[in-house]
TrEMBL record:
Cofactor binding note from Swiss-Prot or TrEMBL: Binds 1 Mg(2+) ion per subunit.
Cofactor: Mg(2+)
Key words of the record: Hydrolase, Magnesium, Metal-binding, Nucleotide metabolism, Nucleotide-binding
Residues binding Mg(2+), per UniProt: 40, 69
Species annotation: Chitinimonas lacunae
List of residues binding substrate: 8-13, 70, 152-155, 175, 180-181
Protein name (Swiss-Prot/TrEMBL): dITP/XTP pyrophosphatase
Amino acid sequence: MKQLVLASNNAGKLREFARLFAQVDIELVPQGQLGVSEAEEPHCTFIENALAKARHASRATGLPALADDSGLCVPALGGAPGVYSARYGGEPKSDARNNEKLLAELGQSTDRRAFYYAVLVLVRSADDPRPLIAEGRIDGVLLYAPRGEGGFGYDPLFWLPQLGKTAAELTPEQKNPISHRGRALAALLARLAEESL
Ligand SMILES: O=c1nc[nH]c2c1ncn2[C@H]1C[C@H](O)[C@@H](COP(=O)(O)OP(=O)(O)OP(=O)(O)O)O1
Ligand SMILES: [Mg+2]
């Protein structure tokens, strides 16, 4: 596999994947560069939405495609925002509004546990009967106010107790190896290596 379309329009994800693939012998091309439109994400599970995005990009380009469907899951909110993380604060999508809504919904709740979850799906073709699938997770705690300028999405509220920082205060070198996305990608690349044995 030489070229792989990245089925995402999220600038934060694109930055992280570009860095994660720097050491991998595959050229990752963001779908926007190939004129692929944004896919619908109508499903209630991460895996189904990731598969829909990967298929859409592969069908449009004729290339293998990688999709990431991810989100923040908060047990005290019944798992919300979950698969609706990107549009939690309403349309059009806005990280600032998503973070505001999250803080409002949590109020003064003392159970502020949360985790990020990501599913990666790689299809070799649009009708691939055997998509490669991997998942990753990272646990944290939600602050009462944002901290840090890095990362994207909910990172300024996502506190990592072991590191004493929010995900937005980590460098990409610090975030990528431990993130839900980094872990899922490591698992996916291991699967891919087995495939080509
Ligand atoms: O590492 C992360 N750090 C902070 N926030 C994150 C992270 N990973 C996912 N998230 C949040 C952002 C977005 O609110 C949602 C993903 O939604 P999701 O539909 O997968 O992505 P998206 O619509 O932004 O772009 P696209 O579908 O084109 O890949 O979870
Ligand atoms: Mg999306």
